[in-house]
Structure prediction request, 122 residues.
Amino acid sequence: MARRPGRQNQTEKDLYRKHADFCKVISHPTRLQIIDILRDGEMAVSDLALKLQITVGNLSQHLSLMKQRRVLESRKEGNSVLYRLANPKMIKACCLIREIMYEQMEQDTALLKRMDQSHAFE
Prediction:
């Protein structure tokens, strides 16, 4: 059966849903920091909490959601739980988005500067 133009198959719909879910997971600044910190390798929960300057309880909620959505993986070592990124490509994705945000900030700054200059002698 030929596919009609403009119609999505179920796999494409599922992929868009998963993509949106992933974006929801990384939409919190603390979760973005977690991804950035774990870019260098796995880390224990207590060390992550110290680095982020948040409580272990607060951090655990973020880690649980990120693990559930397969952004992170964990393993137990003695009494510690170590977390790592499930897929290092997430770093590239986050860096690309960050570059876009930085470029937009630069454009906004340039626009404000031009506006200030054009109103300098009013």
